[in-house]
Each structure stands twice: as structure tokens, then as C-alpha cells.
Amino acid sequence: MELKIDLLKRCETPISYIAIGGAYVVLAAFAAVMDKNTFLWLSFGGIGICFITIGLVFPLERLFTKSYISIDSELISLKASAYCKAQSVDWREIKSIDYKTHQIIIEKTDNTTKMLKLLKFSYPLKAEIKETIKSIAKDKNIQSAI
């Protein structure tokens, strides 16, 4: 079993932001023609430009950073957001796996403990992560309490 998810691709908000921004700009143009109130059409136009800018700038985040879930038979690697540090552990180093509230606790073969924090992941993603890790741990005969 394998799980690979690009978390930045899953976000569909830029299209909706651009659409909402476009609607505000059209509203601003309509207000400028119908009503001579400068504040009204400037505020609608400003809001529209802000929404469009957010919609256009967000995809640039994908050029500079990554946010992903990658679990395969060799490595567990999680990066909850573009602003969080990646968490990785090699399956060969794992002695046992346990799950406590919002974190997977991994006991390594050198008797150290590593915690993979799942707090920033949504509930369905947490369930997928736990199920994938549980399945691979079973295949590799690693003690698991997930």
C-alpha cells in the first residue's frame, strides 16, 4: 500500500477567489456607471482586485514550497503545510509504532523516539495516514498499535 498526496494541488480556492474578485470588479464598474458615489465603486474595485490577487498569487506558493503526504514501503514523509518542517522516518529504522492524540509515536531501532505530528491534517487525511501506516507495518512485521 502506498499513499502520495500533494496537499497544495488539493486546494481549489484560487479559481473561486478569481471568480469572486471578477464579480466585485464588475460590480464596481456597474456602480461607477450607475452611481457617481466614488467611495462605493472604489471599495468594490479594491475588494475585487484583492480577491483576484489572492487567487493569482496562491499558485506561486507551489513554485517555492511543498506540502505533501508520502508514505511508501521505504519512507514515511509528511509536510502539513508550506510553512512547516518536513517529518520523515525510514521504515528500516522503525521498531514499533503507536498512535496517541494527533501524533504517531515511532520507536526506532536505536531506542530513540520520533513523533510525527498530525495536528494540522484534516480528519480524513489522518485516517488515510493511519490506515496506510498500519498496513505497511503489518507487511513489514513491525509492532503497531494504531
Verbal overview:
The protein is about 45% helix and about 25% strand. With about 150 residues, it is an alpha+beta fold. It folds into two domains: about 15-65; about 65-145, Signal recognition particle alu RNA binding heterodimer, srp9/1, CATH 3.30.720. The strands form two sheets. Strands 1-2-3-4 form a four-stranded antiparallel β-sheet, with helices on one face. Helix 1 (about 15-35) packs antiparallel against helix 2 (about 40-55). The longest helix is centred in the N-terminal third of the chain and has 22 residues, at about 15-35.
List keywords for this structure.
alpha+beta, four-stranded antiparallel β-sheet, rod-shaped, Signal recognition particle alu RNA binding heterodimer, srp9/1, 4 helices, 146 residues, single chain, 2 domains, four-stranded mixed β-sheet, 26% strand
List the helices and strands and how they pair.
Elements: E1 3-6, H1 13-34, H2 38-57, H3 61-64, E2 68-71, E3 75-79, E4 87-90, E5 94-100, E6 103-108, E7 113-117, H4 123-139, E8 143-145
Parallel strand pairs: 5-8
Antiparallel strand pairs: 1-2, 2-3, 3-4, 5-6, 6-7
Q: Report the order of strands and helices.
A: EHHHEEEEEEHE
What is the count of helical runs? 4
The tally of beta strands, per DSSP, is: 8
For this structure, what is the CATH class of the largest domain?
Alpha Beta
CATH level-3 fold name of the largest domain: Signal recognition particle alu RNA binding heterodimer, srp9/1
CATH architecture of the largest domain: 2-Layer Sandwich
Instruction: Give the overall average pLDDT.
Output: 88
> Could you say which structural class the secondary elements and strand pairing correspond to?
alpha+beta
Main sheet properties: 4 strands, antiparallel
Strand order of the largest sheet: 1-2-3-4
In whole angstroms, how far apart are the ends?
Answer: 16 Å
- Unreliable spans: none
Assembly level = single chain
Q: Determine the fraction of residues in helical runs and give it as a percent range.
A: 40-55%
Q: Count structural domains.
A: 2
Kindly provide the radius of gyration, computed on alpha-carbon positions and rounded to a whole number of angstroms: 23 Å
Content of β-strand: 25-35%
Shape category: rod-shaped
